[in-house]
Amino acid sequence: MFFAPRHTDPHNTTAANPGTSSSVHAPRPARGGAVVVALLLAACAHSPQAAVATNGMAEVQGSGGSSAAGCRETPAARAALLSITRDLQAQGMALKAYCQVGSGGWVVQVKVTDGLKASAVVRGPLADGHDVDMGTPAGVRLAGAPTSADGFSPDVQYNRQWLHALMARHQFDNLPDAWWHFAQRGTAPAHVGETDIAAR
Fold this sequence. Notes:
With 200 residues, the protein is an alpha+beta fold. The protein is 30% helix and 12% strand. The chain has helices at residues 13-16, 32-45, 75-90, 115-118, 154-169, 194-199, and strands at residues 59-61, 93-99, 106-112, 172-174, 181-184.
């Protein structure tokens, strides 16, 4: 609740000496209240939660039938990704999955929508609207991107193994090049071999 400061008028002797007159003066409106409300609304608009869909639905961007088999948006893939979305929604998180052209698999990213719920499942900093901490950004091939890469905190290692297990339960295999790279089981993802890495 917001209380406006009481304003006194130096020219109004009635306000200073209430017993000197029988007239009653209405309080002046607080001008600062409008500014405070505007600032609060602006803060809400810039909240990290605004970046995450409040319904927890998956943001899935497939590439139809023209991509490598590992990330085609088939009815089975869509159903599996929506099932993952429901699991994550109940745990205070949201899924973003898209097919990266030429990678042969899905890029998977998990965002926190309710840090309190998510803290029962994953570890590390869990600010609403931010990614679950996996140590490296999703969709970027770095030396530390493989799921089993060394040199990360126990929280990051735990989160990577958690995502691996979650995706495996829904028939997605983690590809060896990155924690965020998955192909639907039974599909033949494009080979990401040593020659591909050396060419980059």
